[in-house]
């Protein structure tokens, strides 16, 4: 990384899995607003569904998700029955409109649930929204919880994309984050998936974890390549102990510094590219024939709450505690606490806690940020036309600074992020984001580092 | 993209023998109009898998299904195909002339259609105002199909959806099959039915099998189902 770019590394940047991000949601949006938008969904409007499973067997100390350690399976059953009710509440509003094109199970740990429960949730979706054989089903799996025959049964249910939380293969690092899982365990999970005909296997890796070294991370990447996943996501660990108390269990002294973080990210990038993977957005890699790579090549890559995706559905419906939905310019988030979630469901209410209704300006900004992150370039004219003249001047000034540092170049109104600067895409996006400027006097404690 | 049918149109000797005449567009025509229809309309055979209308392509004719059946489908924004309905004898397609069809209509079997250029229909309308409205109000058009579909998709059990679908086909092309029985042809592949009903193929098969096992369907083969006659009979 160029030395003049180092100053951007300390920047705290939103992940922009939505714009505006969930940090800016508030209670001005009501469940009635969400219900109205659902009623206006069109007959065959493509829907992307997300199901959140907030349970885990063990606490991973790095985790930033909404989850709880749960040892009583009857509590999970209660949750599944609440999910079915929520699906039915939303289905009642849609009244046959909308068609799910993908269903993503995330967490927490989706495979904390037994396959029977996952099948029940899918069935509820099928009956309420319609679910056809061409819908794409994806699930995140904790390799430590995969039981005999789980993979085969999930494949039989139609899951064709399975994502494993690998994080790092190094035992010392695993101890430091309280997530110990052997290479053999991952290898056997991958083997089962391949034998079951799953041809879209994804690994999540994390850099910036405690105890990580270049040498050991290189070995982790070699092990990753040996198992040949179809996609690899390489995320930077966001250490935000003041916002996420569980992260205080991690010894801050053992975290890699800013320079090492960059070196780790660059090592992953070099090794994956050398192995033939295609770089997707700023933190994903995919084999050239993988649907994500094809979408990227054809300019169809999008970013949704799950990260970079080839899913073209703009309407996203989230189910479960803390799940986020986006329907026609309205983002809403469900109750985060299980108690709040259950109370709403028991009362027959959509469990919406907060949200944001996008203004025309925000819709323009969201579109440009989407292009910057997914395509590495964007025509910013719609944003300059939508914001106040004074703000447009400030945006241009910020972009000029990025240009002076060589992160971007201009072609008319098109901002092009230099290939080498793609990992800093979020810093470029931030230049267009009024939420990050002007009231930004000190780095936010709830945002992750840019790298 | 569906292959366009290109069988040379044949002009009927007479429309007198037309099986669908009593519930087709022609039933509303007076003798003078009817004489013109005979001169101007054409009948065309359409092979299985061939399209009479292809999505995105222009269309300048109104089609009436005389024999056989068609699948209506469209490609959604995300590139996937959506089965939006089925046409049976007496149903219409291409109610308005357009530079770009909103859907594709493909023959599910060897079928026959009559087609009327919209230009001709307008000429007839000049002489006999309201002909076009009368025909649209009378038959099942693509707009009715969309209504049928949303009603089906709004049903909350697989069984209800499947039964409603069988009734829907029965109303269109069902026939008596002995005392108290109706024969309902299912010319479309099971996968098309499943896609149309918003069900996975396995769910559709399981539901059909259960209905058969419980004696609620008298018989079930690949291309037809035998049910009881009368209301609420499944």
Automatic annotation (TrEMBL), chain A:
Pathway: Porphyrin-containing compound metabolism; protoporphyrin-IX biosynthesis; protoporphyrinogen-IX from coproporphyrinogen-III (AdoMet route): step 1/1. One of its GO terms (molecular function) is coproporphyrinogen dehydrogenase activity. InterPro entries: Aldolase_TIM (IPR013785), Coprogen_oxidase_HemN (IPR004558), Coproporphyrinogen-III_oxidase (IPR034505), Elp3/MiaA/NifB-like_rSAM (IPR006638), rSAM (IPR007197), rSAM_sf (IPR058240). Residues 41-283 form the Radical SAM core domain. Keywords: 4Fe-4S, Cytoplasm, Iron, Iron-sulfur, Metal-binding, Oxidoreductase, Porphyrin biosynthesis, S-adenosyl-L-methionine. It is found in: Cytoplasm. The keyword Oxidoreductase applies. S-adenosyl-L-methionine 2 binds at residues 62-64, 108-109, 167, 179, 204, 238. It is an enzyme of class 1 (oxidoreductase). GO terms for biological process: protoporphyrinogen IX biosynthetic process. The keyword Calcium does not apply. SMART domains: Elp3. Its EC number is 1.3.98.3. [4Fe-4S] cluster binds at residues 56, 60, 63. S-adenosyl-L-methionine 1 binds at residues 50, 107, 140, 324. It catalyses: coproporphyrinogen III + 2 S-adenosyl-L-methionine = protoporphyrinogen IX + 2 5'-deoxyadenosine + 2 L-methionine + 2 CO2. One of its GO terms (cellular component) is cytoplasm. Its main location: cytoplasm. Belongs to the anaerobic coproporphyrinogen-III oxidase family. Monomer. PANTHER family: COPROPORPHYRINIGEN III OXIDASE, OXYGEN-INDEPENDENT COPROPORPHYRINOGEN III OXIDASE. This is Coproporphyrinogen-III oxidase. The lineage of its organism: Bacteria, Pseudomonadati, Pseudomonadota, Alphaproteobacteria, Parvularculales.
TrEMBL record, chain B:
Residues 25-94 form the Cyclic nucleotide-binding domain. GO terms for cellular component: cytosol. Residues 156-229 form the HTH crp-type domain. One of its GO terms (molecular function) is DNA binding. SMART domains: cNMP (SM00100), HTH_CRP (SM00419). Transmembrane segments: none annotated. Keywords: DNA-binding, Transcription, Transcription regulation. CDD domains: CAP_ED, HTH_CRP. This is Crp/Fnr family transcriptional regulator. It comes from Hyphococcus luteus.
């Amino acid at each position: 990384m160029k030395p003049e770019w180092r100053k951007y590394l300390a920047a705290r940047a939103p992940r922009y899995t939505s714009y505006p991000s969930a940090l800016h949601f508030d209670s001005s949006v009501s469940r009635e607003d969400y219900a109205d938008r659902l009623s206006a969904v069109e007959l065959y409007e493509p829907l992307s569904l997300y199901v959140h499973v907030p349970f885990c067997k063990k606490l991973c100390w790095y985790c930033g998700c909404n989850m709880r350690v749960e040892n009583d399976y009857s509590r999970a059953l209660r949750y599944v029955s609440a999910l079915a009710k929520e699906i039915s509440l939303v289905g009642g509003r849609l009244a046959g409109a909308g068609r799910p094109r993908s269903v993503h199970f995330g967490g927490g740990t989706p495979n904390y649930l037994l396959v029977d429960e996952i099948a029940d949730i899918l069935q509820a979706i099928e009956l309420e929204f319609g679910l056809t054989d061409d819908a794409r089903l994806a699930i995140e799996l904790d390799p430590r919880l995969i039981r005999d025959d789980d993979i085969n049964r999930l494949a039989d249910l139609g899951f064709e994309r399975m994502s494993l939380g690998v994080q790092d293969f190094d035992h010392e690092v695993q101890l430091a984050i309280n997530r110990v899982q052997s290479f053999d365990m991952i290898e056997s999970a991958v083997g089962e998936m391949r034998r079951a005909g799953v041809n879209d296997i994804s690994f999540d890796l994390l850099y910036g974890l405690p105890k990580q070294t270049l040498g050991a991370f290189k070995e982790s990447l070699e092990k990753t390549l040996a198992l040949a996943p179809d996609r690899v996501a390489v995320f930077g660990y966001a250490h935000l102990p003041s916002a996420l108390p569980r992260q205080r269990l991690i010894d801050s002294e053992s975290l890699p510094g800013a320079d090492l973080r960059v070196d780790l990210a660059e090592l992953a990038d070099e090794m994956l590219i050398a192995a033939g993977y295609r770089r997707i957005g700023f933190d994903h890699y995919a084999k050239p024939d993988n649907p994500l790579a094809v979408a990227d090549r054809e300019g169809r890559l999008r970013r949704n709450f799950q990260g970079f995706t080839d899913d073209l559905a703009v309407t996203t419906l989230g189910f479960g505690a803390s799940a986020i939905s986006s329907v026609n310019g309205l983002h809403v988030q469900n109750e985060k606490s299980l108690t709040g979630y259950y109370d709403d469901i028991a009362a027959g209410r959509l469990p919406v806690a907060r949200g944001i209704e996008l203004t025309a300006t925000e819709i323009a900004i969201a579109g440009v940020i989407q292009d910057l992150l997914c395509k590495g370039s964007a025509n910013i004219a719609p944003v300059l036309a939508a914001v106040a003249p004074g703000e447009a001047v400030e945006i241009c000034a910020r972009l000029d600074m990025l240009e002076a540092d060589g992160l971007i170049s201009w072609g008319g109104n098109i901002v092009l992020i230099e290939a080498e600067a793609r990992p800093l895409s979020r810093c470029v996006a931030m230049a267009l984001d009024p939420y990050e400027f002007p009231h930004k006097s000190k780095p936010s404690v709830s945002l992750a580092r840019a790298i | 993209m569906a292959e366009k049918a290109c069988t040379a149109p044949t002009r009927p000797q007479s429309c007198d023998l037309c099986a669908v005449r009593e519930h087709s567009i022609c039933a509303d025509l007076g003798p003078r109009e009817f004489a013109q229809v005979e001169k101007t309309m054409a009948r065309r055979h359409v092979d299985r898998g061939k399209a009479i209308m292809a999505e995105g392509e222009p269309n300048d004719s109104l089609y009436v299904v005389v024999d056989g059946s068609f699948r209506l489908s469209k490609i959604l924004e995300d590139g996937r195909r959506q089965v939006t309905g089925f046409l049976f004898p007496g149903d219409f397609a291409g109610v308005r002339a357009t530079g770009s069809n909103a859907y594709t209509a493909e023959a599910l079997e060897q079928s026959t259609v009559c087609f009327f250029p919209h230009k001709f229909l307008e000429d007839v309308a000049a002489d006999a105002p309201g002909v076009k409205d009368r025909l649209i109000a009378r038959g099942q058009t693509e707009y009715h199909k969309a209504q049928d579909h949303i009603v089906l998709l709004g049903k909350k059990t697989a069984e209800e959806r499947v039964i409603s679908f069988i009734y829907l086909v029965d109303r269109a092309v069902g026939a008596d099959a002995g005392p108290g029985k109706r024969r309902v042809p299912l010319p479309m592949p099971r996968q098309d039915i499943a896609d149309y009903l918003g069900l996975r193929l396995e769910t559709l098969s399981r539901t059909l099998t259960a209905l058969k096992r419980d004696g609620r369907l008298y018989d079930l083969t690949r291309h037809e189902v035998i049910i009881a006659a009368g209301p609420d009979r499944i």
